[in-house]
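[READ THE FOLD]
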Amino acid sequence: MLLTLIVLSLLYAFLNGYRDSSSILAGVIASRAMHPRLALALSALAEFIAPLIFGAAVARVLATGLFDPAAISLKTIVVALVSALIWTLVAWRWGIPSSSTHALLGGLLGAAWLINGWDAIQPEGLLRVVLPLFLAPLVGLAVGYLTMVLLLALFRRATPRVNTLFRRLQIFTMLGLAMAHSSNDAQKSIGMIVLGFMLAGKLDTFQAPPGVVILCAAAIALGASRGDWRLIRTLGGKIYRIRPVNALASQAASAGIVLGAASLGAPVSTSQVISMSLMGSGAAERVNKVRWQVGVEMLLTWGLTIPVTIGISAAISWTSAGAQRAVVLANQFILWIASAK
């Protein structure tokens, strides 16, 4: 079962990198700052490096702060990961810009509640996870707006040639954003694996083995190197026509927010922060420039993710064989992924 948990966690990291690469690269590709393939390669490299440099504060919060390790089991984490992966694949199939972080949180809460009871969930830890998760998009909207206002003020007398500078600067902001993403999101898979080691009696206290960090870094980087082109087109054109200055403002704002959250141990949704920062930078130019209906659709999708994944966890847990059946389903899921073309 521990091996199943590890494989599911790595799959989660891969899909996280695959889907969130759309948010990271939407601006730089839409503004034609870099060739798409080169952007994918550089972002994948940044995604791999970040977990090796930054700490494991987010992993620690998820592994030891959200639950009482003595009150849950490996089955709980397996059910949670299966739930999160099912919703992630459904969202990918339909091109929905959902949040992998929300999916994991919903899966964890649903599995812990149905298998172990609410006593397994620590209220303070839940607040520490949920509060930044829901506040981060609002902060992204505000910081994206303010960053854009600042750039417009600094370059108000510039000629259109300044776009060349903005495009070149995006190379650095895109790399920073990719590193910020991995410093937060790869930690979620690391946290699940370390928690699995603790529940299996392999570790007495929280400690992320180097091999686990490298595996999760490689998984999220591999996913990022592939790129979800459908979501790149959604974020890169449907919200509004992105100019180089919009992309630069949103990338700089998002990178600062996500990296700051990672240093504080606050798991946030990078895709949410980037999308809202992008809308904030557009609104700073002209409020009606942004297609707010697209933003509303994204918010509805994000809002549905946690209840849906709680429901998926419930459906898995309520099968005739209970949580043991979830392990069988997880193994079948892994075989299906391995055989998929």
Remarks:
- The mean pLDDT is 85.
- The chain has 13 helices and no strands.
- The two ends are 26 Å apart (CA to CA).
